[in-house]
Amino acid sequence: MSFGKINRLARRIALATALVLAIPTSFGEVTTEAQLKAAYLVNFLKYVEFPGTRSTINLCLFGRDSLGPYLASYEGRQIGGRELHIRKVSSPEQLVDCQELFIPDTEEARVAAVLRWVDKQAILTVSDSETFTRDGGAIALIRIDGRLQFEINAEALNRANLKASSQMLRLARQVTGAVR
Amino acid sequence: MKRASLWIALLAAFSPGLHAAGESLDDISLEDLVKTDITSVSRKSQSLADVPAAAFVISADDIRRSGAQSLPDVLRMAPGIEVAQIDNGRYAVTARGFNGRFATKLQVLIDGRSIYHPLFAGVIWELDPIPLDDIERIEIIRGAGGVMWGANAVNGVINIISKHTRNQTGGAINVTGGSKGTGDLYARIGQATSDSTSWKLSAQGRHIEPSKLADQSGESADRLNSAVIDFRLDHDIGGGRDMSIWANASRSKLNDAWNTQPNFVPTLTLSKLTPQQDAHSESLVGRYRWLSDSGIESSLQASFTRSGVSITEFLAESRNTVDLDYQGRYAIGRHDILWGLSYRSSSDEITTNEPYIAIAGRSYTQSNTGIFVHDDWTLIPERLKFGAGIRADQTSANGTNYSANASLLWTPSRTDSVWLKYAQAPRTSARAERDVSILTGVAIRTSALGNTPVISYSQANSNLGPEKAQGVELGYRKQLSSAVSADVSAYRYRYTNLRSGTQTGMFGCSPMFGALLDTAKCGYFGLDTTPPFGTPVLFVETQTINGLAGWSDGVELSADWMVTPNWRLQLSYSWNHLKMDSSSNPSINTHAEITERSGPHQYGSFRSQWNITPNQQFDLWLRSSGGFDRQKLIDLVPNTSTAPTFSHVPGYVTLDLRYGYRVNKDLEFALIGRNLINTKHLEYISDFIPSAATSITPTWLLSTRWNF
User: Is the Cα dihedral B350, B355, B360, B366 positive or negative?
Assistant: First the structure.
């Protein structure tokens, strides 16, 4: 390939990239479903009691990360006196120090495997897969009648040795299992 | 050079503006969150942010709101996917160039089952593989994906994932009717028999009346009748084990109009043929997934498919295919390891209408055994991931082939990712390419002997081997704000051993041609050679060989912008350029020219989805493609040159509209207009099989969806 061609190709790539970057970033902000999900994930941390006294709190995102960009601005926030960190995880070893774990519905096929990784650890599991609480997860985010609601599996919380506040339980659309 | 620095300056100018993805919903309480209405247009996560490849996802919502009634029409929204409609049911669909009626370099999987046809290579799109309403999402990954998806995933793979049956309980009936005699029906019943078991049965039928021929000589014969029945059962065993069973049967009847039946006496004339095409496929698929105590995730899928195509006066094929596929996954430490074993055996029985088309061997069984391993290795947590994989395929007709890939995914921030990928993949030769001899074209050559018809005859080559592709890709994905995301990718691939033809001989059927007279060969075609004139026709014999090589360069762009919560815009643009090597063999140079000119250099799509009110939707879709040239298979205009002649397919811009009205959550009406800008346009001129080109005309459809 001659230099001229490389140059032409490079110019096209540069043009396309510039077009991408040129899309304005400061349009009126829109509340998207992804943003709502991100807000839920951060909020849950305020309503659940985690054992131990650490200075940080880690929100972990499993697999194909679709919420990461929407959570970026929460990084470093103080939640109940702890600093929030957001991390990506893809294997059981990486779950050490996770307080909350989000499994996106596109990873539905792997829910059982991931739930086994977290078994009996003090990790709050959340997913936007509709059947997540039935599959043994703690909280499912479900879109119903144009709103994003959540369901709680109290037994999963018990197994993880986590305690949800009464306010959170009251706001849940459905709570299955006995609250300890 | 100056311009290059201008671009760099431009890039730098934009860099400081790289904000995080929008503001957070600050300190909003849980109480408020549960009350927040989502009016947003997108339902599902669209991104494949962590994939080091050019990827695009089409959701069920996108499919419904596109107004498209067939699968290839849906695929038009993806960057890098080139879709050209041939007639009511036939489409040419490819990724990144090399389009054709039998586009060979795109793999298509439905829930892991390949629908790539082992006889023709490519997909028979007129045979609806699954009702559109049963699709959960379509994941499109462009670029060589041989390691994960096996041979033939050369330019890309389309993964169609069907809905889980627990999301399809109850009944549904959709009826669509409109102009051009379009009538579509979809019906479904489903039930969750317990917490862990659910099933659904669905059926879809489509009918369209024949199109107008592009040359305005009347109607084509492409009356489409297609039907598909799909059953799925899911059972969750517990403990990370589940099983699914699919049973699927589809059939399509779609006739065709060819201008090709040659009569040589007294002079060459071509009469019209209207072959009747009937295709069917029946599949039974079972999948079992389990989780071992050590944490290994496994999936075993077995499928059996019986299929067939018959085209009257051309060929009849029947086929049995068995597929076995195991995949394992183990995530440990910083590694995420995937591996798999697959076996496929496909047996056919084929009869052809000689001498027009002949096949070597009435029946044949081709097999393929593959093994692969792939690892995703996190080098720096949150920042840098390295992926590498290799696959070996042992095939009955193409020897042993290797696929490989290596990728780097760099995420400098949560909102940016940059990936670099190298991949190589083989494309195994299909049965028809190895074993079929066929009349491929007619031209009239002017010489000292006057005007002589010259027939091209392509002969089988049982030694035709696999094609190879390898290349590099670079991509950048950016979430600019909570409402705007975009990605751009660029690639450069090198193709070698591409199928082409070389001239192997020439003969004539009149004693006037002297030494070129071949009584035996002319006899095979039923042509008289008795003196003094015989049949004044020349045959050019060619043979398929792996003779062509070249480069493919391209850039793809897609952007997604939620302008307001109720209004979403999506843009995709693709540019592709093929440059074949020149050869000392003139036949290969001819093939190179045909290949380079055979597809559009650029195409794009612009979609607007607007929720006017919670009950009303207005969607708009602008689609466009550049023009290109197709070789004339039949050219009865006398020519002194031996160079191929071309027909031009002009570029086009067209528009689809949809207005949807939801009466309540179970009943919806939609008015759909498709191809509205021009009174007619041409998208493709068939290759290999000389179907008469048809006009794509505006259609209006009224659709009702009722859930119960």
Answer: negative
